[in-house]
Amino acid sequence: MLKATKLNLSFGTKTIYEDAEFILEDNEKVGVVGVNGAGKTTLFRMLLGEIEPDSGSLYSSKRRIGYLPQEIIVEESDLTVWEYIYNGRPFNKIHRELEEIYRRMETGEGDTDADLKRMQKLQDELEYYDEYEAEDKLLELVEQMDIDAEILSRKMNELSGGQKSKMAFARTLFQKSEMLLLDEPTNHLDVETKEFVTKYLRRYKGTVLIISHDVDFLNAITGKILFVDNVTHKIKVYPGNYDEYLKRAAEEKRIREIENRLRLKEIDELEAFVKRAREASATNHALKRMGLERAARLEKKKRELNSPEVAYKRVKMNITPKREGAKCPLEVENLNFGYPNQNLLYNGLSFKLQGNERFLVVGLNGVGKSTLLKLLTGALTPSSGRIRYNPRTDIAYYAQELDEVDPDKTVFENVVTPEYTDWQLRGILSNFLFYEGDINKRAAVLSPGEKARIALCKILLKKANLLLLDEPTNHLDPETQAIIGGNFNLFPGTIVVVSHNPSFVEQIGIGRMLILPSGRIEPYSGELLDYFYESNTAEEEKQRR
Questions:
Q1: E strand spans, 61-178
Q2: Which residues, listed in sequence order, are joined to residue 11 by a DSSP beta bridge?
Q3: Contact, 345 vs 368, CB < 8 A?
Q4: What is the pLDDT of residue 89?
Q5: Which phi-psi region, left, alpha or beta, contains residue 130 (left: φ > 0; alpha: ψ -120 to 50)?
Q6: Residue 418: other Cβ atoms inside 10 A
Q7: Is the pTM of this model over 0.70?
Q8: By 3-state DSSP, what share of the chain in percent is helix, strand and coil, each rounded to 5?
């Protein structure tokens, strides 16, 4: 069971929860939703023991919790993939503690009885985590997730964003947890891995809480939705998946509006009566008495009045190039590139972009989609071949891992450019929901969604006519995704995009797609894209056999 009772938490003057309560039963699959800043990730951090409530309680019957954070940070950069996943089970930590107990017992230090009890508990933990079977279990998971044997010996810091996400998910699943806390788990994942994760979570014998802006993913897995309300600071649980939650929430809103209209009408009538009673002659005791009674009822009706629905502020974005682009803004000829001690990602890759087209780069994780965009920006140098830009081509780049956002700078410092005055920049930042209280915050303390808004703002400020976009919808809520998708659709320039978001891809109007690693270029169609992923999955399954 997971239960919150009279939960209260504030950060400074900002209230997160106010007497929030909810109950979830064991083994439920629950989507956690709410606007940015409502307190979704904060709830996870409380469950992990990283934050204590100001008052109230948050109780979980599950003590072994697996956590997949939204941002994958590998502190030990020299870890191999195998070591990174294997360390998901705390064998090293347990053995270090056991060694310290052995040392104390040999030297006669400490409380022997307490040490013996702790030793037994640690031995039980090793048994729970299947220490002697762990490597076999990991190999089994590696095979199920279709992780190439070659990648297991590579360093984690050598992987692409999608590969890191896949390995982080493997580590989380390997932890043998009783509860999984997943924060935006499908970010960066290709279609094949997302399908595996979906099937795995459906079968998972434990509690799962998922923070996600991926509506299809939530609909496929969840049986309940936990809504964190940014206005009331309460938490409410809805039965059903995300679509069913939307219907119920919309019906509740409709009922509240009807109730408010009826209450407002009654309030108007009571106010009119009270006014007449107050203006009546002092000798009209009956009317005066009725006026006092109506006044008391009036105050009660005002207290019962629902708060008006808050219209949340939305991102505003209008990307206009400073000049018209060329008919052929970019040409790639016989491109070859591979990282040191690895196979070539491209061998003789060639293509030309057409002015104002939408060009999609597709392929499974690790085939070089992000690398191609880095080559096009000049961040990487090809082994051979040429990348030629028309002199009229201006480039703006959105990095999958938000590399363009400097964590050591403030929000404002990240967007400073000589072409705009401070006053203009403040106005533009407000369109991306950064106001006076936000612009001097260091980017390092921001959520991934806030960093993504900075990156989008930088794209707008460059006024480029060629946009290179690597997973631009990651970290963004569905409404913001729709807003930027509509803007990119109307953008009078060329777009090269890497995206695993089908709705976004359809919305911006893709014309052609480059399929990696083959280098084949095809006219875009959703059916062909589905067929590509299905056929790749089938071929890899055949090779494994």
A1: 65-68
A2: 14
A3: yes
A4: 93
A5: left
A6: 5
A7: yes
A8: 45, 20, 35
Q: List pLDDT tens digits, range 175-234.
A: 999 999 999 888 777 778 888 889 999 999 999 999 998 888 999 999 999 999 988 899
Q: Among 137, 122, 206, 216, which residue's Cα sits nearest to residue 170?
A: 137
Taking the C-alpha atoms of residue 344 and residue 332, their distance in angstroms, rounded to an integer, is: 16
The DSSP bridge partners found for residue 359 are 496, 512
Termini Cα distance of the chain: 41
Burial of 522 (0-12, 13-18, 19+ CB in 10 A): middle
Cβ atoms of 532 and 362 within 8 Å: the answer is yes
| pLDDT averaged per 10 residues in sequence order, the chain, 545 residues | 94 88 95 86 93 94 89 79 93 93 86 90 93 93 87 87 87 93 85 87 93 91 94 92 92 82 82 84 81 83 64 73 94 93 90 95 89 94 94 94 91 93 91 86 87 92 94 85 89 93 90 92 85 60 48
Q: What is the number of residues in the chain?
A: 545
Measured in degrees and rounded to the nearest 5, phi and psi for residue 363 equal 160, 165
DSSP conformation class of 72: -
Q: How far apart are CA 506 and CA 485, in angstroms?
A: 9
Q: What is the DSSP string of 213-265?
A: S-HHHHHHH-SEEEEE-TTT--EEEEES-HHHHHHHHHHHHHHHHHHHHHHHH
Residue closest to 215 by CA, chosen among 510, 501, 483: 501
Helix (H, G, I), strand (E, B) or coil at 356: coil
Residue 410 carries which DSSP code? Answer: B
Extract the tokens encoding 297: 């009822």
Per-residue burial over 84-115, b = 16 or more CB atoms within 10 Å of its CB, e = otherwise: bbbbbbbeeebeebbeebeeeeeeeeeeeeeb
Give the whole-angstrom CA distance, residue 149 versus residue 544. 11
Domains of the chain: 330-544 (3.40.50.300)
What is the pLDDT, as a whole number, of residue 537?
52
Tokens of 347: 């061998």
User: Tens digits of per-residue pLDDT, 357-409?
Assistant: 999 999 888 889 999 999 999 999 999 999 999 999 999 999 988 889 999 99
Q: What is the pLDDT of residue 543?
A: 47
Residues 177/206, Cβ–Cβ less than 8 Å: yes
Over the stretch 480-520, which tens digit does the pLDDT of each residue have? 888 889 989 999 999 999 998 888 999 999 999 999 989 99
Long-range CB contact pairs, 121-130, < 8 A, 24+:
122/94, 122/97, 122/98, 125/90, 125/94, 126/91, 126/94, 128/64, 128/176, 129/89, 129/90, 129/91, 129/176, 130/176
- Is 371 strand, coil or helix? helix
